[in-house]
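Work Package 4 report. The design task specified in the project plan requires that, given a folded chain encoded as C-alpha cells, an amino acid be chosen for each position. We show below one input record used in the internal validation round.
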C-alpha cells in the first residue's frame, strides 16, 4: 500500500514539474481564473479534501486521478502543488479533538504546525531540500575553537525549542533556526533562483530539563529551551513541528531523521541531511543491544539499516507524516537520545525518547 501511494505521489510530482513554467519568487504561482470555474478556489492540493483523501488512499484508478489533477491544476502555493477546489470543500480551521487536554494547549500552534510542503522535484541521495524541514534547530555552544553546533532540536512554538536533556551543557550559548548549509552565508536554490530568508539566532531565556534525567542512564532524555524572544514563524524556513497529541499505532511506521551529524564516512555534513528509518520493536531492539542497555517504556528504537542517527544529531527529531483533518502534517514522535558509536552501524538501531509519553510534561512546562 505504501509503495502504491509513493508511486502515485511520484507521478503527481512529475505531473506538476512537467507543467511548471515559472514560480514567481519561488513561493507561489496561482491561476487567477480558477475562482471563476463554478465557485472554485486555487489552493494547496493537500488542503483540498477531495484530492487530499484520494492521494492518501491506495487507488486502483490512478490514471483517472492523474488526469483529473492535470485538468484542475492551477499552479503552486508555497512550493506545494495547487488545484482548483470547491470552496465549500475547503478544510476547516477548527481544532481537532485531542486525547490530551491541558491548560497550556493553546500555547502550541496546533492548526499551523508541521505543514507539509510537497516538493515537486525528485532528489537523489539524502540531502534535504531548502525549507523542507523548517522546524530544525541547532544548539550553539562555546568551545575552545569558538562557537560550534553540537546538538540539534526542534521548534515546537514561536518561543520553545525541544531537545535532549543530555545536550544541556554548561557551555550552551544559544539556538539557531532556519539553517540549511553551515558554510553558506545565504542559502539559495539556484535552479529556482530562490534564496531562503536569513537564519535566526537567539540567546536562551530559560532551560527546563526533565527532573528524572540522569546522564548515566539516558532515561527521560528531554529538555525545553525557551528563547530570549519569539521566532519569526511567518517565513518559510522557520516553522514549528507538531507534537503527538493523539496516541497512534507506531508499529510498522516509517520515520524520518534529520540533522547535520557525522555521515557514515566519518565526516560531518555541512548541509542538512535526512533519512528514512523503520521502527524497531522494543524487544527486538533490546536483543540487538545484547543487554548493553536497558530500553525503558519511555524510549523507542528506529533505524539500524545504515541510516541511523549519528553524532551531532543528538536532540534532533524522529518524525512521520500523518493525515489530520484531510491535511498532511509532520509530527515529531521521538528525540535522538543515543545509539551505536559508529555511525550507520548495520543492525544497531538508534534509541529515541518516546514523545507520546512526555506531551503532558511539555505542556505543563510551557509559559505564555
Amino acid at each position: 500500500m505504501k509503495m502504491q501511494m509513493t508511486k502515485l505521489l511520484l507521478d503527481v510530482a512529475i505531473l506538476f514539474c512537467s507543467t511548471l513554467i515559472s514560480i514567481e519568487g519561488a513561493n507561489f504561482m496561482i491561476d487567477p481564473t480558477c475562482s471563476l470555474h463554478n465557485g472554485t478556489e486555487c489552493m494547496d492540493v493537500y488542503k483540498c479534501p477531495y484530492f487530499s483523501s484520494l492521494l492518501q488512499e491506495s487507488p486502483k484508478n490512478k490514471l483517472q486521478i492523474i488526469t483529473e489533477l492535470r485538468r484542475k491544476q492551477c499552479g503552486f502555493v508555497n512550493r506545494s502543488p495547487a488545484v482548483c477546489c470547491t470552496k465549500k470543500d475547503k478544510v476547516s480551521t477548527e481544532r481537532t479533538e485531542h486525547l490530551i487536554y491541558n491548560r497550556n494547549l493553546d500555547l502550541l500552534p496546533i492548526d499551523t504546525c508541521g505543514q507539509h510542503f510537497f516538493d515537486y522535484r525528485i532528489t537523489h541521495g539524502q540531502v534535504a531540500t531548502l525549507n523542507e524541514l523548517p522546524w530544525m534547530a541547532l544548539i550553539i555552544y562555546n568551545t575552545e575553537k569558538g562557537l560550534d553546533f553540537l546538538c540539534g532540536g526542534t521548534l515546537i512554538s514561536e518561543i520553545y525549542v525541544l531537545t535532549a536533556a543530555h545536550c544541556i551543557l554548561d557551555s550552551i550559548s544559544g539556538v539557531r533556526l532556519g539553517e540549511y548549509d553551515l558554510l553558506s552565508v545565504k542559502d539559495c536554490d539556484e535552479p529556482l533562483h530562490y534564496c531562503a530568508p536569513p537564519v535566526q539566532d537567539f540567546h536562551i531565556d530559560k532551560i527546563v530539563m526533565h527532573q528524572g534525567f540522569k546522564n548515566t542512564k539516558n532515561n527521560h532524555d528531554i529538555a525545553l529551551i525557551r528563547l530570549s524572544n519569539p521566532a519569526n514563524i511567518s517565513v518559510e524556513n522557520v516553522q514549528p513541528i507538531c507534537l503527538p497529541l493523539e496516541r497512534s499505532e507506531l508499529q510498522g511506521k516509517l520515520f524520518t531523521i534529520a540533522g547535520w551529524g557525522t555521515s557514515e564516512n566519518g565526516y560531518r555534513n555541512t548541509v542538512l541531511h535526512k533519512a528514512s528509518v523503520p521502527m524497531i520493536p522494543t524487544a527486538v531492539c533490546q536483543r540487538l543491544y545484547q543487554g548493553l542497555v536497558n530500553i525503558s517504556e519511555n524510549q523507542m528504537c528506529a533505524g539500524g539499516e545504515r541510516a541511523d542517527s549519528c553524532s551531532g544529531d543528538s536532540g534532533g527529531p524522529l518524525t512521520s507524516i500523518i493525515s489530520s483533518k484531510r491535511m498532511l502534517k509532520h509530527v515529531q514522535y521521538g528525540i535522538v537520545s543515543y545509539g551505536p558509536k559508529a555511525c550507520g552501524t548495520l543492525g544497531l538501531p538508534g534509541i529515541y525518547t518516546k514523545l507520546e509519553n512526555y506531551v503532558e510534561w511539555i505542556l505543563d512546562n510551557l509559559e505564555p
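The two ends are 43 Å apart (CA to CA). Validation will be extended to a larger panel in the next phase.
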